[in-house]
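Saturday, quiet lab. Running sequence design on the structure tokens for the scaffold JK sent over.
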């Protein structure tokens, strides 16, 4: 009963995007407690091909693994959801082969805990599983769809239905899980208030940041040449809230910041993002090392209008000692002091004013960056963030944890 079974909606390797960063560090920590098995989806063949590297990174502590390329399209998932009454979020990530693998592994008497990462994976955990069930929702996804619905537009009825059906599912899962985790206390508190489930069963397990990798002192970081003051945004650029953020910044904020250039750094930029490219806007696509762009940034902007949980992009920029200007949505859940560790600006005018002030005062910008790095060192090491996980997985015993290697990242 000392083994863990980890379920994830995307293969947790390499840790090069927000969800994979959290899932990788969780999986690595669980592997330090004992053998771990894995069932997950992959975006495509290239994503699935990371399994051998994942095995190597875990130093032989990964047991059986089922990695399945997710092939269900949104239209098919929506049709199935309407027919079954389920949320689209579940039908997008359903699979009979994965269900059969999970059923077989849960029959193994050595598997004592099943850890589901992201709400979609809870559908594979049977209601009467004998194992301890830890559910990491990360964010309250139903609240995200409710926000989309409130914003209006042609998809508002679809988002309203998803919010309603997904909330019912989240509540049912949390009621049977031994403990439900969220990435911030704000997300956990929101879930408690809406479901009525108490503190003991709904907990915050916050993200950390790899301070060895995101280190401004690393000389190996290649320089990015910039002829103008440089404002940088990093993120997965086919993700809706990131697309919304950079479009808003380029159109509403950047015109009020004379002479500065804006770099949108991240893989898979959509046509809407590529269309922003101009004399003062650079769209990079995937880069070999995101740290080079962070190191070159005079200011890192986090202009998210819609966000849930904790933004890794903000933690990483702060760990790199860069001055960050964030919207309230991007700042939510981060344990830092506005004005000392970063600047929080609400609205286009406030964000432009804050960035202009930092560009005009390099000494203040540098002091803000130093404070940001110090705050990350004080509170955001992954080892400290995940220390509580041991007692949540195997509450009745202590397990020695051998060291596991740090893994690099790219945008």
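Result came back. Writing it out in full:
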């Amino acid at each position: 009963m000392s083994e863990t079974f980890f379920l994830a909606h995307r293969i947790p390797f390499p840790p090069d995007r927000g969800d994979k960063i959290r899932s990788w560090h969780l999986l690595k920590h669980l592997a330090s407690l004992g053998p771990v098995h894995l069932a997950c989806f992959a975006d495509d063949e290239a994503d699935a091909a990371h399994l051998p590297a994942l095995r190597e990174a875990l130093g032989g502590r990964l047991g059986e693994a089922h990695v399945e390329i997710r092939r269900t399209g949104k239209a098919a998932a929506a049709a199935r959801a309407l027919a079954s009454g389920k949320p689209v979020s579940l039908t997008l990530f359903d699979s009979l082969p994965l269900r059969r693998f999970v059923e077989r592994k849960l029959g193994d008497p050595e598997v004592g805990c099943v850890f589901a990462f992201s709400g979609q994976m809870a559908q594979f955990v049977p209601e009467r599983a004998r194992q301890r069930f830890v559910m990491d929702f990360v964010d309250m996804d139903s609240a995200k769809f409710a926000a989309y619905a409130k914003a209006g537009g042609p998809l508002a009825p679809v988002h309203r239905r998803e919010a309603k059906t997904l909330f019912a599912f989240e509540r049912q899962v949390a009621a049977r899980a031994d403990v439900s985790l969220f990435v911030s206390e704000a997300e956990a508190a929101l879930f408690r208030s809406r479901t009525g489930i108490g503190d003991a069963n709904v907990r915050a397990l916050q993200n950390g940041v790899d301070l060895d990798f995101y280190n401004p002192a690393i000389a190996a970081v290649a320089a990015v040449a910039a002829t103008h003051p440089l404002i940088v945004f990093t993120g997965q650029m086919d993700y809706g809230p990131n697309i919304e953020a950079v479009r808003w910044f380029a159109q509403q904020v950047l015109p009020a910041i004379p002479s500065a250039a804006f770099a949108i750094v991240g893989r898979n930029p959509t046509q809407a993002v590529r269309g922003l490219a101009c004399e003062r806007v650079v769209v990079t696509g995937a880069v070999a090392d995101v740290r080079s762009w962070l190191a070159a940034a005079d200011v890192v902007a986090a202009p998210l209008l819609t966000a849930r949980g904790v933004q890794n992009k903000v933690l990483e920029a702060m760990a790199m000692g860069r001055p960050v200007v964030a919207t309230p949505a991007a700042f939510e859940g981060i344990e830092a002091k506005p004005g000392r560790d970063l600047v929080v600006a609400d609205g286009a005018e406030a964000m432009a004013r804050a960035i202009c002030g930092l560009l005009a005062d390099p000494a203040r910008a540098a002091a803000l960056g130093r404070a940001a790095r110090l705050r990350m060192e004080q509170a955001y090491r992954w080892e400290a963030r995940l220390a509580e996980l041991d007692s949540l997985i195997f509450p009745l015993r202590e397990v020695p944890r051998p060291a596991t290697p740090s893994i690099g990242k790219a945008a």
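Notes for JK: The two ends are 38 Å apart (CA to CA). The mean pLDDT is 92. Ask whether to fix the surface positions before the next round.
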